Amino acid sequence: MTIATDSKLNARIPDGPIDQKWTRCKDQLKLVAPNNKRKFHVIVVGTGLAGAAAAASLAEQGYTVTVVTIHDSPRRAHSIAAQGGINASKNYQNDGDSVHRLFTDTVKGGDFRAREANVYRLAEVSGNIIDQCVAQGVPFAREYGGMLANRTFGGALVSRTFYCRGQTGQQLLIGAYSALMRQAASGRAKIYARREMLDLVMVDGVARGIVCRNLVTGAYETYAGHAVLLCTGGYGNVFYLSTNAKGCNVTASWRCHKRGAYFANPCYTQIHPTCIPVHGDYQSKLTLMSESLRNDGRVWVPKNKGDSRRPEQIPDEERDYYLERRYPTYGNMVPRDVASRAAKERCDAGFGVGDTQMAVYLDFSRAIQEQGRAAIEGKYGNLFDMYEKITGENGYVTPMMIYPAVHYTMGGLWVDYHLESTIPGLFVLGEANFSDHGANRLGASALMQGLADGYFVAPYTVGNHLASRSLKPVTDAHPSFTEALASAKARTDRILAVNGTTTVNELHRRLGQIMWNKCGMGRNAAGLSSAIKEIGALRDEFWSSVRVLGSGEAFNQNLEHAGRLADFLEFGELLVRDALHREESCGGHFREEHQTEEGEAKRNDKDFCYAGAWESKGEDVAQSVLHKEPLEFKDVPLVQRSYK
Amino acid sequence: MTHKSLNLTLRVWRQPNADAPGAFRTYKLGGISPDMSFLEMLDVLNDQLIKDGEEPIAFDHDCREGICGTCGVMINGQPHGPLPATTTCQLHMRHFHDGDEIVIEPWRARAFPIIRDLSVDRSAFDRIIQAGGYVSVSTGQAPDGNCLPIPKVQQESALDAAVCIGCGACVAACKNASAALFTSAKVSHMAQLPQGQAERRQRVLAMVGQHDEEGFGWCTNTYECEAACPASISVTHIARMNREHVKATFAGQK
After folding, report:
1. What residue ranges do the domains of chain B occupy?
2. Domain boundaries, chain A
3. What is the dotted CATH code of the domain comprising A273-406?
4. CA nearest A419: which of A471, A470, A467, A460?
5. 3-class DSSP state for residue A531?
6. Residue % of chain A over a pLDDT of 70
7. Do A549 and B53 make contact, defined as CB atoms within 8 angstroms?
8. Which sign, positive or negative, has the C-alpha torsion B59, B60, B63, B68?
9. How far is B159 from chain A (nearest CA, A)?
10. Which of A303-307, A595-599, B233-237 comes out lowest in average pLDDT?
11. Is residue B98 within 8 Å of residue B7, measured between CB atoms?
12. What torsion, rounded to 10 degrees, do the Cα atoms A73, A387, B33, B2 define?
């Protein structure tokens, strides 16, 4: 591993007290004249909350916007699957919430590995997001008097989460999508659906365009512009089994990384505690049950190993409500990383339940007794329905079985305070960047971040880039476009030429097993070192034995999957190398060598209080160079987290 | 959990592209676990086809948890298969029997041209939304969220419409290939909320106009759409849309 000694990372954090940084930054940003805006062309890749919100907002301001998405419609992006809610420090419940408290909870929840200034800004604009969504017609839950309702989420002692039953992500995305459709109708935004970004085009060191493959015809297309916004989500599918949609991938981010964008903290992956357990080798994905269920559901395992009675038949005194036992203050509402590790600890110790013994119970019997079944149905009805469809069990009668699963990735392309990557003109928004969640994301914060970046941050900072840099006119006839197109096409052709015997699914599943077993909830040096070798061997196997039929000049979903897997096979190694170098436990990154006597994560602030940003040095991931951005905690003092 | 396995005969629509003719092909598939989802069963078939040197079956899917609206095929003549209020990805093989023959086809409608095999082009839905399925409010213009009290009952009723996932099952189920249920869900969502009032009349006229222009047929109240809808959208939204349309027409709003 090489560590850069002369790192030029500049996070561009404004001076001044934390509550004035964003105001100062905005006041100093250069503006584009209204009549010049339409001459500037912004390319937005991805149409989840961050992408749709940014594209709509920039088009509203008057910029010419091109939007590409791998989906058949912008409305399908995986933000749509977020269930529980979105945080905002409105203090509508009069329970003492404030911008500062949301900021503090988020920094602490992230286990002190996020950038303070970004997190403060996130909390600062959180209220505006709710207002904007309400104005768009998002039907947030209301009280009988007509006022907005809230629920509680993990890692907080106030009630600040806004929600639409168990479909909050869907409603927020439909809101942003509607705003984008309005701009499409006006002609200021042009949408190109079923396109996959395969490379970034740089001219004079600035991001000026992209290369896409039209997924229907197989044709390669190039788009030129003055800025590129990458809003392409997270990389959880490197684990094969995750709660991500099947199409989620790292390809766009990885291509930008290869072109010079640093990749920060890839080892920070979030394992969500409440998912439906794995039940077969053929399984293609895991399904999340919203964290909001922990408001009323109690997590337990039998006190006696191998207790084979039905859960309803086990009396209360023979149940171990281990979260309530270990964390009396937060109880079942501890942050996700803590809840996940506690479930693993019980199962590893032999107390797991179900066929595989790799599950714990989530029990609603007390809540149903106290509040009535109708109240529970009203809050979580669709989640109980989904559980029954997948497992064939009725969660109102029998406790649900849950187990942790890969859910969200806090790492991503490194960005400064402007959300600009190390490539000028390349902005990275939402889950695709690394900036706001540190080593663990609190529930209901992903929607907040995606929309904050898209509605309220990038629309300002992108303008500054356009106004302050001299960007000469470039068309896609420029040689940089020709070169990027040829290299994207060559990669795809190379996959088709292998013509081996192993399917893409088989190889992807094996990559997932390596990642989950050696770099999942618990990690250690020996396991990580062997994972690096195994991933390398699997990568070689991919290039010698993958079988992709059909042609590149047609709709070929297997070819799309193969291209994404090829990138995961490189990226997975970087993730593991990052996990190996970080000799501490923090948030979602748990190194077994570094834990307290009670088995809690033990940070090493002396040596690792930094964001680790990796610079690509060509084909070999092992040659990547680490740049450190030191993290300073002035407003939330560094402490060991405690949820007891 | 069940441990038996199913042996199935699948008749699947194969069509290389929009212009080429299509036909059913028959595949035998054994060892299917009842705990598999329908799409996982297709994954198994596709891996088998690849090994046998035949190109896999194209089908759209993404979230596999019933919310993105990407998946959807006709299963034995029913959109999304036999279960009510269930997307194809949430249908599990425990609802089939050993020895079953299953016929799998794409959505069939003039406004949804076939791309390949089971995958169709539903971009007509985006254009219906573009015609008016939004509130014209730009980022930064919003007042405080509690400025506009919305009674819980009204909010819940708007949300009942807003949960449409845009999968197209309603069109596939309808003998007229009408998208009235899809269009009405958005019209009804907006018409029930104070935020939707300013553009209420032009919205319904423009969206219905675009619906017709896309080549969808019109509603003749057979309710097949409601029966097929995985998001349980009720036909009462179509009734509301019709009322809105009549009112807007007589009000002379363009």
Report:
1. 6-116, 123-139+149-251
2. 273-406
3. 3.90.700.10
4. A460
5. helix
6. 100
7. yes
8. negative
9. 6
10. A595-599
11. yes
12. -170
Instruction: Tell me if chain B has a CB within 8 Å of the CB of A551.
Output: no
Q: Taking the CA atoms of chain A, what radius of gyration do you get in angstroms? A: 24
Q: Do B56 and A558 touch (CB under 8 A)?
A: yes
Please name the residues between 101 and 120 in chain B that touch chain A, using a CB distance below 8 Å: 115-116, 119
B213 touching chain A per CB within 8 A: no
The residue of chain B with its CA nearest to that of A187 is: B130
pTM above 0.95, yes or no: yes
CATH number for the domain whose boundaries are B6-116: 3.10.20.30
pLDDT digits (tens, 9 = 90+) for B98-154: 999 999 999 999 999 999 999 999 999 999 999 999 999 999 999 999 999 999 999
Q: The domain B123-139+149-251 is classified under which CATH number: 2.60.120.10, 1.10.340.30, 3.20.20.140, 1.10.1060.10?
A: 1.10.1060.10
Q: What is the DSSP code (8-state) at residue A209?
A: E
Contact B83/A at CB under 8 A = yes
ipTM: 0.98
Q: What is the pLDDT of residues A468-527, one digit of tens each?
A: 999 999 999 999 999 999 999 999 999 999 999 999 999 999 999 999 999 999 999 999
Q: Give the Cα separation of A390 and A213 in Å (integer).
A: 35
Q: Which residue of B has its CA nearest to A162?
A: B145
**What is the spatial distance between Cα A117 and Cα A152, in angstroms, rounded to a whole number?**
25
Kindly report, residue by residue over A67-114, the tens digit of the pLDDT. 999 999 999 999 999 988 999 999 999 999 999 999 999 999 999 999
Tokens of B14: 């194969």
- Asked if the C-beta of A81 comes within 8 angstroms of chain B's C-beta atoms, the answer is yes
Residues of B within 8 A of A506 (CB-CB) are 47
pLDDT at A279: 84
Answer yes or no: A121 catalytic: no
**What is chain A's mean pLDDT, rounded?**
96
Q: Is the pLDDT of residue A266 over 50?
A: yes
A170 touches B: beta carbon within 8 Å: yes
Rounded (5°) CA angle A266-A271-A273: 165
Tell me the per-residue pLDDT of B179-212, one tens digit each, with 9 for 90 and over. Answer: 999 999 999 999 999 999 999 999 999 999 999 9
Task: Identify whether the C-beta of residue A162 lies closer than 8 Å to the C-beta of residue B221.
Answer: no
Residue of B nearest to A282 (CA): B40
Residue A71 is nearest to which of B46, B54, B62, comparing CB atoms?
A: B62
Q: pLDDT at residue A34 above 60?
A: yes
Reduced to 3 states (helix: H, G, I; strand: E, B; else coil), residue A625 is strand
Pick from A15, A46, A294, A286: nearest CA to A153: A294
Residues 164 through 203 of chain B touching chain A, CB cutoff 8 Å: 165-166, 189-190, 193, 195-196
pLDDT score of A460 more than 70: yes
Distance from CA of A502 to the nearest CA of B (A): 8
